[in-house]
Structure formats: C-alpha cells, structure tokens
UniProtKB/TrEMBL annotation:
The keyword Nucleus applies. Residues 161-211 are annotated as: Disordered. TPR repeats lie at residues 338-371. Its main location: other. The keyword Nucleus applies. Pfam families: CS (PF04969). This is Dynein axonemal assembly factor 4.
C-alpha cells in the first residue's frame, strides 16, 4: 500500500489556491504529477498525495513548481469565492472512483496530444534545419563560383599582359619546303584527308561488367521502413555498454577473472533465478551492475528478482532504469522493453496502484498487440480500475 502524504499545507485567496506537498527527499525527476479540474495526484514511491478539490479549478491557468524538496501548486479557481475546505468533505468512494477514472482518461488524452504536438514541432524543426543547411550550401557554392570567376579573370588579364610583353614572331607561310609556292594545289588533298579523318566518329567502347557490392545491414527491415538513425544509435550504445567496465572496486583484487566479467555474472544470475535461488541471482546482478552500469538487461533481470522477493519499489526503480537504457526504441529491443514495462506494471499492481499499472500494461500492449496473455492481463487490470470484480 502507498503511504499517503498528510503533512501538506495550503492557503487561498478569492481567485487562487496554493498547495505545498513535501517530497520527503524524492528527486524531482522521480515525481509523477497528474492534474485535472477536479483532481490532483502527486506520486513519488512509496508516497502518494491525492486531492479531490472542494470546487473545480482551471487546470489550464494553473501551474506547478517541483524542487528543493517540495512541490508547490498554484491553482486558479473557476469561481472567485472563498472555499470552506480544500477537498471534498464527503467520503463517497464511488464518486472518487469516477473522478479518478475521468482524470486518468483526460491525462492520457493530454499526453497523446502533447506527443502529437511534439512530433509536429520536431518535424518542423527538422525541415527548418534542412532548409537552412541547403541555403548555407547554396551560399558556399556561390562563394566558390565567385572565387573561380575572379581567379579566371585574373589569369586572363595576366595572360593578356604577358602576350603584350612577349610578342610571338610571325611565320613565313608563303612557301613550303620542297614543294614551292603554298598556293599550288599539291597539298590540298592531304588537308582534305586530314579533315575527313578528324570528322569520323571514334570507335565504340568495349563492353564490360561493373561489380557492385552492398554493405550488409544488421537489421532485416528495408531502409525505407526502418529507423536507420535509431538503429545505429542502439548498436552504438550496445557496443559502448559492452566496453564499459568499472575497475575502481576495492574488492576487485579478491575477485576471480570470471567474476570481473559482467556477462559471466549475468549468466550466473540467470541460472540462479531459473533454479529459484533469487538471493543468489540478486547478488550476481548487483556485482555485475557495479562493474557495468550501462547494461539494461542487468537492471531488468534484477527487477524480476525484486518482484519475487516482494521488493516492489526497488522493482519499479530497476525497471525504469532498464527502460532509460533501452533507448532509442527500435525493433531489436522491443521484447526487452515489453519485459521491463510489464515488470514495472506488475509491481504497481501489487502496490494496488492499478491506474499506474494499467498505463504500463497498455504501453506494453502497443508494442506487442498480438500477445494474448498480455491482452488478458491488461483487461483484468482495466476491470479492476473500473471497479468490476475480477474473474
């Protein structure tokens, strides 16, 4: 069960309400906020703050500041009048459930709209960057052409000046050796033959074959259908993760050569997990992560151990860390992302945070929509969020 925050403070004016929620040491990046006109949720595991407002607020004109160990919300009232209470006085669970579901639906719509706006903005920025680059290339091409024209003109002027200073002597073409006058017609056939030969087309070129080879691609999808840049970035990060090994452990001297290899430790942890030795697997993954903090599989597998050992908050943290490392999202890491998302969603559900768990399961279902087991689990959690009894 989450720990509900009760030591919040609030104040109000005729037009606004100010609420301060202590974060109890949580980093700003770990704070999840969901806000609507009737509802506010601030979640920073294992703590949770929920507020069902006494009257509606204007969420579009409201603001939030998270930092320095506190989250401060400045909420604008829709009606300028004094509130008798900050939250609803009745404890109607059915009304709160409907408000929570409506808030979740509105939040998902807002996130989707923001994602679309972000995609459009990114496309516009890419187009602007491309146009700017093309303009710069045109300017550079014009500059080079002007330099060429200037150099050509300079050389032409120097050549004319040199010719004026070094006149070429005229040849006496009135006579040719051994043939008398140039006006006699003896050499005319020779000139006509030379001219005729110069006008003949050159012989055809010999036929041949040109061998073309292509660099094999690591990913099987066609280039026009794939995310080439994301795939290359993922390969680069995978190679970097294999190279990064920390060597500043004090007990490194006591480890064997195999125990200094994160891949060997991962395999050992996998074997322990399969055999049911979850603590042994956890210790192997812990040491492997101390040696290499860039391998997403280590965090995802350690999250599975925490689930078995009921360390649910640690399972959420490790799953989130694995998802941070599993970027960019490409086909090669789709299965790994699904496993990490489902493990985090399972931890949320075991903490009875079904709304958060449903978000994760729906995200995993978007990656693998044909997964029957995932469809059944998602529907079961959706029924629990909506108040339907589980099968």
């Amino acid at each position: 069960m989450p720990l509900h925050v009760t030591d919040y403070t609030w104040s109000q004016t005729d037009s606004a309400v100010n609420v301060s929620v202590p974060l109890k040491g949580a980093a700003p990046g770990r704070v999840d906020v969901m806000s609507t006109d009737q509802y506010l949720k601030v979640h920073f595991p294992p703590y949770l703050f929920e507020a069902f407002w006494f009257e509606d607020i204007d969420d579009e004109r409201s603001s939030a500041k998270i930092g320095d160990g506190v989250a401060v919300f400045s909420l604008m009232k829709r009606t300028n009048r004094w509130w008798q209470h900050l939250m609803m006085v009745n404890d109607d669970k059915e009304s709160k459930r409907r408000i929570r579901e409506k808030a979740l639906e509105k939040h998902l719509q807002k996130v989707s709209a923001e994602a679309k706006i972000k995609a459009v903005r990114k496309q516009a920025e890419s187009k602007y960057a491309l146009e700017t680059m093309m303009e710069l290339e045109d300017q550079e091409r014009d500059r080079i052409q002007k330099m060429k024209d200037s150099e050509r003109e300079k050389v032409s002027v120097e050549l004319v000046a040199w010719q004026q200073n070094h006149p070429t002597p005229l040849r006496d073409n009135t006579k040719t050796p051994e043939h008398g006058s140039a006006k006699s017609g003896r050499n005319q056939p020779v000139h006509r033959e030379t001219k005729r030969r110069s006008q003949e087309p050159p012989p055809p070129r010999a036929a041949g074959n040109i061998q073309i080879t292509f660099t094999p691609r690591v990913f099987p999808t066609a280039l026009r259908e794939s995310q080439a840049s994301e795939e290359e970035e993922w390969l680069r990060k995978q190679a970097e993760a294999r190279r990064v090994v920390r060597a500043d452990l004090e007990e490194l001297e006591d480890l064997t050569q195999e125990e200094r290899n994160p891949d060997w430790l991962k395999d050992k942890g996998d074997r322990c997990f399969v055999s049911g030795d979850y603590m042994g697997a956890l210790n192997a993954y812990n040491l492997a992560i101390r040696l290499n903090k860039k391998m997403a599989a280590l965090y995802a597998n350690r999250a599975a151990c925490h689930l078995k050992l009921r360390n649910l908050h640690k399972a959420i943290e490790d799953s989130s860390q694995a998802l941070d490392l599993l970027t960019p999202a490409v086909e090669a890491n789709a299965s790994a992302r699904v496993r990490a998302i489902v493990r985090r969603g399972s931890a949320f559900c075991q903490l009875q945070l079904y709304a958060e768990g449903l978000q994760d399961y729906e995200a995993a279902l978007k990656i693998q929509p044909e997964n029957k087991q995932l469809q059944e689990d998602t529907q079961r959690i959706r029924d629990m969020v909506q108040g339907c009894p589980p099968d």
